[in-house]
Amino acid sequence: MQWRSIVVGLLVLRVLLNCAVWLVFGLGPSWGFDFPIKFTFNLHKIELLKDGDGATVKTNAWSQHMYDNRNPQANTCSKISGNSPKKSYLSFFQEGRDEYERKYSSFPDALKVKMRGMARDMFYFGYDNYMKFAFPEDELNPIACEGRGPDVLNPSNININDVLGNYSLTLIDALDTLLILGNVTEFHRAVRLVIETVSFDKDSTVQVFEANIRILGSLISAHILLTDPRNPFGDIALKDYDNELLHMAHDLAVRLLPAFENTSTGIPYPRVNLKKGVPPDSINETCTAGAGSLLVEFGILSRLIGDSTFEWVARRAVKALWNLRSNETGLLGNVVNIQTGQWVGRQSGLGAGMDSFYEYLLKSYILFGEKEDNRMFSAAYESIQSHLRRGREACNEGEGDPPLYVNVNMFNGQIMNTWIDSLQAFFPGLQVLNGDVENAICLHAFYYAIWKRFGALPERYNWQLQAPDILFYPLRPELVESTYLLYQATKNPFYLHVGMDILESLEKNAKVRCGYATLHHVVDKSKEDRMESFFLSETCKYLYLLFDEDNPLHKSESKYIFTTEGHIVPVDQRFREKSWEDQFPCEEPINKPPANISNTKCCLTIIIREAHAQMSFLDLLQEDVLLVEEEYNGCGGEVTVITDTVEQVYLKLRSFKENWVSMIPVVFTLDRRTSCSVGTYPGLTNLSRSFR
């Protein structure tokens, strides 16, 4: 009988543990969250059950799609009945009218002013403490009240070292936020500090993607705002400013260029050392977002300085990734080998490793007007809707679960796991930019429901179990960004209430002695001693703009978009013009290199002075590719490129060899600059040595 007692005891213990998990992670009844949009999430537990003839048991829940994805027509959603008219997205806010009216139908002006002040105070509490305790280091440790830089003792700590380059990251990242808040005096002081104290001549190995979006993007944005003759933020001219931020951006971009060398596909290495180039032990794998989200910043830089190099390498990477998409689904994976072009990670989703790739296809089109960018985005969006979207067709009517975007295998569209991550919360904002407001409202509501439950967004959330998979929250801005953009699109006060909820949650759960700290655990609210730079550059910025209807950004005749790091850039006609095309009018690119370069349709004259005797790396080129003072004519004229240094010649020849005709404009425009010298291109010195 004793063994029976033991068995019964174990069973009782298991039941109690299940109940505890059920309550702690919110698997049971709602915790009283009364959401104005009526969602009935039928999250059935997945069971590997087949009926008698082997057919999959189907339901109207997301779970059915985990095992029945063989019919591509069935991958989207259940249809609403033919006699059920489709409603405007505005009607989504009419459900539960009385409760909605009471809670969400208005937002008093006085409360808006209060929330705007609260968002401003939140920014300055973090910014002032960073300047007091951390500057010139990269980040603030808000609990210890001290600065944080790269982890030099542990180079493999990429969680830190990918982002922190020993270049005052938080100050640079926050530049345009100061202007958004109207603090011209501090903006000027910060710009001068950056010019006087920051150098990129550092032995720091950083992630190309992070350096691009956080540093390069902010420098370009601040420069554009400083020099905009329309003065949308008033007279903010800085005395004696001589385009230093633009020169710094160019300097950093040149130091990132080695990532694009020695790669068979044109897809860049994920990391570079700012002094030495690509590390010898660098891996050949990179994520789609990391390699394919450089075009906005690199493209603007190219068009500002008249040098196509940066846009060309970024665009080549995007095209290379795009050409690797699945022929069956049109989807891309999340990790690729830059040498072989093989997909190492076959997961296709909207979160980490994928998110900003899609974002920059659309934003590049908005900025540069390139039809190919729009074509790629439209095709990608169609594939996303066909293969990633699950649930019913309409957001708030019809049978089945509300829409959700899941992670699938890029080759067959089958669900690979049952979690989504917090980065995916950016997607409603992108849907707003694309004009798909209905789907944006619905997906945003899903993420806000998670926020309401935990007072934060867990890094990963299991939609099947309705529980966090990864519990930390590093103060990410994606949900705030989508909230802001949805409010701009709908002007519905509901989104002001969402913003207030987020603001108050951050104030309650993340504020510590010297700033705002990462939540280590969204349930028990324990913290980690780190305040990432995007908290000031994005989270606080979007919260402030949400409540500041009269901000110059909203009142200006100019239109702006936000980079993926939240930096503002104008939609400007000058970014739709390419100066190098006017000066080098080649009509048609050659897809394959000609057998003899003298047959090329474009023109090239290379005159090498002083340095030619040192350039043993020229041996890599075919003998008939380049001879001193040899001239090739073809498209109605000739271009003469004069080079004085090994570094410049090497860069031109390497580029010319890789893409032949399409890189000739780069060869030409590099020497259009008046300051071509070794000092202008630091970091290239070592490159020539590697080719000897």
Q: Overview of this structure, please?
A:
It is a single chain. With 692 residues, the protein is mainly alpha-helical. Helices cover 41% and strands 9% of the residues. The chain contains 24 helices and 23 strands. The protein has a 3-stranded antiparallel β-sheet with strand order 5-6-7. Strands 12-13-14 form a 3-stranded antiparallel β-sheet, with no helix packed on it. Helix 8 packs antiparallel against helix 9. The longest helix has 26 residues, at 109-134. The termini are far apart.
Structure characteristics:
692 residues; mainly alpha; 3-stranded antiparallel beta sheet; 24 helices; disordered C terminus
Instruction: Report the β-strand fraction as a percent range.
Output: 5-15%
Query: In whole angstroms, how far apart are the ends?
Result: 83 Å
Largest sheet geometry: 3 strands, antiparallel
Structural class: mainly alpha
User: Could you list the spans in which at least 5 consecutive residues all have pLDDT below 50?
Assistant: 21-60, 63-93, 583-647, 656-692
The neighbouring-strand order within the major sheet is 5-6-7
Helix content: 40-55%
Question: How many helical elements?
Answer: 24
- The coarse silhouette is globular
On the 0 to 100 scale, the average pLDDT is 78
Radius of gyration: 27 Å
Number of strands: 23
Cofactor: Ca(2+)
Pfam families: Glyco_hydro_47
InterPro entries: 6hp_glycosidase-like_sf, EDEM1/2/3, Glyco_hydro_47, Seven-hairpin_glycosidases
Keywords: Calcium, Endoplasmic reticulum, Glycoprotein, Glycosidase, Hydrolase, Membrane, Metal-binding, Signal-anchor, Transmembrane, Transmembrane helix, Unfolded protein response
